[in-house]
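The protein record passed on for reference:
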Amino acid sequence: MTTLAPIGAKPQPGTTTKKSFGKTPDGQPVDLYVLTNKSGAEASITNYGGAVVSLKVPDHNGKLADVVLGYDTADAYVNDKSHFGAIVGRYGNRIGHAQFALDGKSYTLAKNNHENSLHGGVKGFDKALWTARILSAKDGQSLELSYLSKDGEEGFPGNLKVTVIYTWTDANALQIDYAATTDKKTVVNLTNHSYFNLAGQGSGDILGHQLMIQADKFTPVDAGMIPTGELRDVAGTPFDFRKPVAIGARIDQDDEQLKLGGGYDHNFVLQRSADHGESLAARVLEPASGRVLEVWTTEPGVQFYTSNFLDGKSTGKGGLTYPKRSAFCLETQHYPDSPNQPKFPSVVLNPGERYHTITTYKFSVEK
């Protein structure tokens, strides 16, 4: 049962509270929705960029801590270059040389990552003001966000109607349900760009977190961080996370791929179960707190990123700073540069079809 509390009210278990979060540069109001489940754990989401602003989950002693990086104001998200917590689109990750072709027609995108297009371009979905609607949910709190990406926006064809539903369950899971339709053939690859630190945001590096990724192959990249097209075995490489290993155990090894990314910034090819539902993609344990994150998804890939480009210069929530490797991302997705790689799973969406993917971030504790 979802209850909307009055604006400014203190969040109560089993409610969704709407708060003012500031304004966009052109003066439109930005809101923050605090989804509180029955146990008191919280997910806070803004309609600016659809960003997950905070996730407060318990450790093995029941103590809540905020485990995602972010900011205290809408202004900071407007100026953010790291995509903290945001919905990323129209195309998550990189498209090589900022161009692709559909049915023989070439489309040119903005170059915002050297020669490439990254995360939807200069003004991707992370810089859009989404329309928010609180939904009723059986076992938690749900927020629907919708956005119309117009034909030609950032160079992409087709009017794309996008709906993202966040559900914060009473079992401390954040389910993200993505859907989209188009009136012209286009490419779509949506993801969420949350940066996690299971010890608590701003509490040091994540090199001691134990990570498992359900993948026996990854997509190596060239000097521009664009996949070469190869699906490479992880066996015998620093990319073998089939059994849990500390994120920092091999991150500084003398490995060409790690040097290109400045650490991990690579797509892993997930081993999926036979059915079409969600499969386990990754599991992370923070030993001191006992917090565990499991990532379940319908997607074929996940980008593992160790925040190699954070530099500690911007001020995050509560005045904390976020230096290099102070968080990790597990961005579920289709593979980078798929529009230009015919052997990769297709990202083409046709009129009359419905794009639909689900990813769930499940939190628990290990004592």
